[in-house]
Amino acid sequence: MKKFELIKLPYEADALEPVISKETIGFHHGKHLQAYVNNLNAAIEGTAFEEMPLEEIVKSSEGGVFNNAGQILNHNHYFLQFRAPKADNRPTGEIAVMIDMQFGSFEAFKEAFVKKGATLFGSGWVWLSVDKDGKLVITQEANANNPVLHGLKPLLTFDVWEHAYYLDYQNRRPDHLSALWQIVDWDFVNGCL
User: Fold this and answer.
1) Which domain holds residue 151?
2) Is the predicted pLDDT of residue 148 greater than 80, yes or no?
3) Which residues on neighbouring strands pair with residue 45, listed in sequence order?
């Protein structure tokens, strides 16, 4: 039987401070994401989902299987897209060109992206994806939803579930979203294109 495992972080637990604390990484990655992995493994045992890749499970499941698979897919992307903070961390490469062409500037893009994340009611994710025509799309995805469900290719995501930021930012979701730009690994984002 294929078992999903907790992804290994490509950085130390304190590497994203002060944007995301070591304590938040411990809870968010070590406890929340681990629980989704454990729950999915238990839910798919003995089912047709057992041998499917994660993205296929997300596209073809519902209920508890979908919720846990979706959260694993979302969190894996989220944690892998970061690196140590950099004060003036701007997009590079192809994604920089695409952002400038579609949004006019990185600042305009950041404003639109943070607004979508800050205004998502309840829990979920804000995503930057690319559609089949190569156009960038910002979406709000509630709960465990992922842009792959709409035929989009995910590039970048910010988690707006409270467990992602509450220890560090309390109820200040917009502050959390604005700080995350310092730790985005634009090479990772370009690699998703």
Assistant:
1) 93-192
2) yes
3) none
